[in-house]
Every structure is written in structure tokens, then in C-alpha cells.
Specification:
about 45% helix, about 15% strand, globular, 10 strands, alpha/beta
């Protein structure tokens, strides 16, 4: 006859035995301490990164993530190229530009399926603006020279008959500094992300001339789906640290799934107060505008890389479309596994 204590112990052992495989099934991470460089973390462009960080999704994957914020994507990329950061949270098209310079980087989880970048002219400095040619000789604010905001501005200019050398680009960041630069007249036009652009637009400070904050707008500007923010790293880092990259992808996709059902109040409670730029209502109005551009599951759309390459090659003569191997610029393997795990 079994005593009560014996029965409890047997049950506990059985439960532990059932649970053990789930604990030990997780592959060992090659690196647990990871540094991520990002260019303008407060922008909605990188909201999935912030959500995954704030809700503890990186920690849940066994990662100790340190996020360093830079003025723009180009500077964040420099940190990874220079070796002071492991992974970049930045625009997908950088992987194409890098390959053109014989540097191979690979995106492994998508955060945004539209650039979320709008370009506008100052209603104060350019009240009589009539078209792109009017921008010749003007100062255009971007998050940082060489960043995605700069790329979109270059594309807009080229379609209006201007070259990048016809204007002056000034780095203004993606937060309060960008608002100040435009409103004080330091710049004549601006290419930037939300919430900055919606705040300038709603206050009548800018006239929008190009908009990729929606899927429809992105289709009109780029002619197809345009992958935007993603996590990317040197190819050899991805190859040497597959379990770590999987953990990073898991955390981001977990954040993307949360964002699919999050309400405005949830966003306000989760992001740092400084991200609101002093105006909660406008911040939420911005979120409503860009919500559909957030990637649903971390997977890069099959036609997206082709769209990005065509756009870049149209104005950057150093990028030869026939010399770029797009298959090496991204992988969906990690995102697919994360999607299956979280049913994203």
C-alpha cells in the first residue's frame, strides 16, 4: 500500500519528467550577451524592437540584449561594421548597398513591410513650392546622411529630375531635434519617420510630397512591396550563431504578434514616455497611420528585395542590379520557425 507522501512524490517526479524535455529542448545559445545598434529607436519604424525589449521577450529567450541608439541607420550600421555592435536593427536596403561594396550582411527577421517615411516641404520656407525642381539648392533634413530617410529622398529627387548633389542633406535625427530643425527654418524640407512627420503635418508645418507610411503609398512610390526595418548582421555572424539569431527572431516575432492586437492604451503604457514627444494624442494618431506597415510575422515578402534593388539602382550608379545576389541579402528561415512557434 502506497502512503500519501509516496503518491505525491511519484506525481511530482512524473510531472517533472514530462516538463524536462521542454526545458532542455531549447538549443544552447552561442552568445547570450548581444549588442544591437539602432538608428532612431523612438521612431515607429523600430517599434517592434522597443516592444520586444520592454515586454521582456529577449530575456525570455535567454538573451541579455544591450541596445545602442544612434542618430540614424547609417551610423548604427557603422557600429556593426566597426565591430562595436553584433547586430543592426535597420533598413533592409543597407544589405544591398553593402554587397555592392563586397561586404555581405544578411537580414534574418523583418520588423516593417513599408518604409514609413514621408517627405515634406516646409510651409514656412517653401510656401510657393510647385514641384521637385524647386528643391534644387535647398537643405533637406534626414535622420542621418546615408540612412533610409536619405535613400527615400534620393529616390524622390531622381524621379523629379534632380540628383542628390543638387541639394544639401543635414542630419536631424528622428525626435525633437527634427521638429526643431524644420520649425526654426534650419531646413527647407524633411524626409523622416513617424511620429515626427505626423506631428509636423497636423500642425501645418509641412506639405507632404511623398508618403510611404501606408502599404498603398509604398506601392505608389516603389512600385511594389518594400521591406524596411529588420535585424541584419554580417553573414558570418549569422552562420556562426544560428541559435542566437533564432532567439533574436523569436523575440521580434513575439513582439510583432503582440502588436497585432495591441490597442492605443497598450502602446502608451509600453513605450518610454520620451517617445511621445510631449503629445500623446498625436503620437497615437501617428501609430494609427503606420500600423499596417508593421510586419505581421517577420517574413520578408518574396518580391520585396527586387523592389528595393530596383529602387536603389535607379539613382545610385554604384549599385549594379545584375551584380547583386539578393538571395544572400536575407533569409526567412529564422522568421518561419518563430512564426510557427508563436502562430503569428
Amino acid at each position: 500500500m502506497l502512503h500519501r507522501r509516496t503518491l505525491i512524490s511519484a506525481s511530482a517526479i512524473a510531472a517533472a519528467t514530462i516538463a524536462l524535455p521542454r526545458v532542455f529542448a531549447q538549443p544552447k545559445l552561442e552568445k547570450t550577451k548581444i549588442s544591437i545598434a539602432v538608428g532612431g529607436k523612438a521612431a515607429f519604424y523600430y517599434l517592434p524592437l522597443t516592444i520586444s525589449e520592454q515586454l521582456g521577450y529577449f530575456k525570455a529567450e535567454g538573451l541579455d540584449v544591450e541596445i545602442s541608439d544612434f542618430a540614424g541607420g547609417a551610423r548604427a550600421l557603422q557600429a556593426v561594421v566597426g565591430g562595436s555592435a553584433d547586430v543592426c536593427s535597420g533598413a533592409y536596403e543597407h544589405t544591398i548597398n553593402l554587397q555592392a561594396k563586397n561586404q555581405f550582411f544578411q537580414a534574418f527577421v523583418l520588423q516593417g513591410r513599408a518604409p514609413q517615411i514621408a517627405m515634406g516641404v516646409s510651409t514656412k520656407n517653401m510656401s510657393s513650392y510647385a514641384g521637385i525642381p524647386d528643391l534644387k539648392g535647398k537643405k533637406i533634413g534626414v535622420s542621418a546622411p546615408g540612412s533610409s530617410t536619405n535613400m527615400v529622398a534620393n529616390l524622390v529627387l531622381s524621379r523629379g529630375g534632380l540628383k542628390a548633389s543638387d541639394v544639401s542633406y543635414i542630419g536631424v535625427g528622428v525626435a525633437a531635434g527634427a521638429l526643431t530643425a524644420l520649425r526654426s527654418g534650419q531646413i527647407d524640407a524633411i524626409s523622416n519617420t513617424d511620429p515626427v512627420m505626423t506631428m509636423l503635418e497636423q500642425k501645418g508645418d509641412v506639405k507632404i510630397i511623398s508618403d510611404t507610411r501606408t502599404l498603398k503609398g509604398t506601392q505608389q512610390v516603389f512600385g511594389g512591396p518594400m521591406p524596411a526595418a529588420c535585424l541584419y548582421a554580417p553573414v558570418d555572424f549569422v552562420q556562426k550563431n544560428p541559435n542566437t539569431c533564432q532567439a533574436l527572431a523569436n523575440a521580434i516575432v513575439h513582439g510583432l504578434k503582440w502588436l497585432q492586437t495591441a490597442g492605443p492604451g497598450d502602446i502608451i503604457k509600453t513605450v518610454p514616455e520620451t517617445y511621445l514627444l510631449g503629445d500623446r494624442a498625436l503620437y497615437l494618431a501617428s501609430f494609427d497611420k503606420v500600423r499596417e506597415s508593421i510586419a505581421p510575422d517577420g517574413i520578408v515578402p518574396s518580391e520585396g528585395p527586387k523592389t528595393a534593388l530596383a529602387a536603389i539602382a535607379s539613382f545610385d550608379t554604384s549599385v549594379k542590379a545584375d551584380k547583386i545576389d539578393l538571395a544572400k541579402t536575407y533569409t526567412n528561415d529564422f522568421a518561419r520557425r518563430a512564426k510557427d512557434r508563436f502562430k503569428a
